[in-house]
Protein: Fructose-1,6-bisphosphatase
Organism: Lachancea nothofagi CBS 11611
Amino acid sequence: DSAESINTDIITLSRFILESQRYDAKNATGEFSLLLNSLQFAFKFISQTIRRAELVNLMGLAGASNATGDQQKKLDVLGDEIFINAMRASGNVKVLVSEEQEELLVFRHNPATYAVCCDPIDGSSNLDAGVSVGTIVSLFKLLPDSQGSTKDVLRCGREMVAACYAMYGASTHLMLTTGNGVNGFTLDTNLGEFILTYPDLKMPLEFPIYSVNEGNSVYWEEPIQQFFQQLKVPKSELKDKPYSSRYIGSMVADVHRTLLYGGLFAYPSDQKNPKGKLRLLYEAFPMAFLVEQAGGKAVNDRGERILDLTPENIHDKSSIWLGSKNDVEKYLKHI
Ligand code: AHG
Ligand code: MN
Ligand code: MN
Ligand code: MN
């Protein structure tokens, strides 16, 4: 009967964090749970704002550009404000890097030990069409005795302590890693809580999907063109079926699908974007961390592991190839 089918012992994100800290002495200060509370709040607030945007006239351009030259949408600016305010108010963040802020922000009055890097709205070119977008976040611990500077974030990707994204799709999802696997949560809008729905998520070893902006192919180098050609027209048609193409144009949504279904997502460098398009600190790093923790791989054009890279400036970019282990290895073998 229905009373029996309702789970009365659900695991919320807050419960999940508190319980995992109980077993992890090094993270037992509670600072991380407080920070995660503020992150959850920012995700819920941005989620609601996006879902109401059309009704309260928040669609369209804001009229300015950001540090990497993107035109800002009204929701880029609003998402950025919501995120910054939530992090400042949390008291547990000292340093904040945002796609929409040219310089790094330092909250001097916060007696905090975390640095947060964020893409407040990822996929903003899709906003006006109501297509899935998200927020991407990476977390570092400040260097010893740091008062907060770019040194705290211009570090090798392996030094990240946590990464997560929220995807504002048909429902709002939150995928999180603290270096101990990936756990996924779904926002229950009635409860206002993220509920554990994908415990210890592992991605498929391979899956015949490629996800890339193929409109850029004229700007790609020859080996990259050849590689995708080979996915579409396999050499041995008997053994390999052609890959399907899926490209949403929101990294969050394309990576989310890749985590759940498997396959390959790439944004290679090209003549227009010689260093690639996606930014290390708040796009490539956190997604690479999540994908690796789910059993996948993430490398750049040259096959170097993304998490081994170190950005030179806070908006530094990288080419990226990520996804199922075997599919990324197919690329590695090709080069
Ligand atoms: P953002 O909206 O945060 O600026 O990021 C856009 C990124 C990413 O979401 C997506 O994968 C990629 O840009 C799409 O770029 P193209 O439109 O060049 O394919
Ligand atoms: Mn942008
Ligand atoms: Mn983005
Ligand atoms: Mn963005």
User: Anything to note?
Assistant: DSSP finds eight helices and 17 strands in the chain. The longest helix spans residues 31-52. The pocket of manganese (II) ion (ligand 3) is lined by residues 119, 122, 251, 283 (CB under 6 Å).
